[in-house]
Amino acid sequence: MRLILAAALSLALASPVLAQASDAERSMTATVEAEHGRHIELLERLVNQNSGTLNADGVRAVGEMVRQELEPLGFEVRWIDMSQTGRAGHLVATHAGPGRNVLLIGHLDTVFETDSPFQRFVREGARATGPGIGDDKGGVVVIVAALRAMQAAGTLADTNVTVVLTGDEERPGAPLETARRDLIEAGRAADFALEFENLAVEDGQDFGTVARRSSSTWTLTTSGRTGHSSGVFNEALGYGAIYEMARILDAFRRELPEPNLTYNVGVIAGGTPAGIDEAGFRVTASGKTNIVPETAIARGDLRTLTPEQDARVRARMAAIVAEHLPRTEAQLQFSPVAYPPMAPSEGARELLARLNAVNRDLGLPEMAEYDPARRGAADSGFVAADVPTLAGLGVAGGGAHAEGEWVDLNSLVRQSQRAAVLISRLSLGGD
User: What pTM value is reported for the model?
Assistant: First the structure.
């Protein structure tokens, strides 16, 4: 009864701008506002359950919390086990109405494993901190809040919605084709895809994400003849592994730059000997100043905006590596686990235009395109080649992947309102 009264009051007091929305859409906005406290409580429960990617039990526990939210709304919820990839699995929920299919994408896992000191939800007014609170548990709450508002307004009954929440977005399992099989299949079956990672906000202005860059990892290993340092640069010993490594990395720095491209070197070691662990995170080396180094190893990432850019840059990197200093060798390998780019497309821009129509009708600010070079990779990259995709529809905040990650709790309201109306219009054919 309290919810009904709040909705009626909100409708009665609707502004002239909000009055451009339909009665059902005004009901959605009122429901989101009335349930704001409930959404914050749900966010707190999700955040306080650790779901670091490698904490399989924790990821499944968060998935179970979401199941309890979606099943009462009429969704068929399945858990897709991914133990064969070394990960917990994914939650897939379907609501098979007669409308066009809208795919909603998010993830259950976070970068904060059980050994992290950052484990709890803390609220101070409209600001809250916690592990994964924005990336991506806030986005999951936006999905739930939007769907609840749609049910209250009566639009959910006829919508055709698929929700895919992966359990390994932060550290995908292998093989990747298995780890992302269900998401890719859902994308191919969808008419539209909406991804609920963090909202892009600058100087108080919300932005729409129509493109994201890829993310892949490379390993560079150089080798040289070892011996007494008095012979370095001569015909017998040549330049050694570290000079070859320095040549290649400096050539990357000088010759690769182009718009929307980055190529970070994350870790490096060289000496006699040098090595890297099986996981590719820890390098070791030893050596003396009077020994020409035998081996050097570096690992880094590569981020590109389109498949064409990715292929072009990889080819140039390989060409640079092949130009060896005397008596040295080098091998460049790219990891098979890679996030494809969400390349900019007319379909994505049309979705942003549809969202801005929602913004106008709800009296919310319109959203310009966000610079893709300022966004990381996400699961939306796996579906964007098959279906028009709009990303970054989660909550506003900052500090993702670091202790102190935070969100603006008030952004839950406007993001859930936007999402509820947009999903309804996309599925049911409204403008």
Answer: 0.90
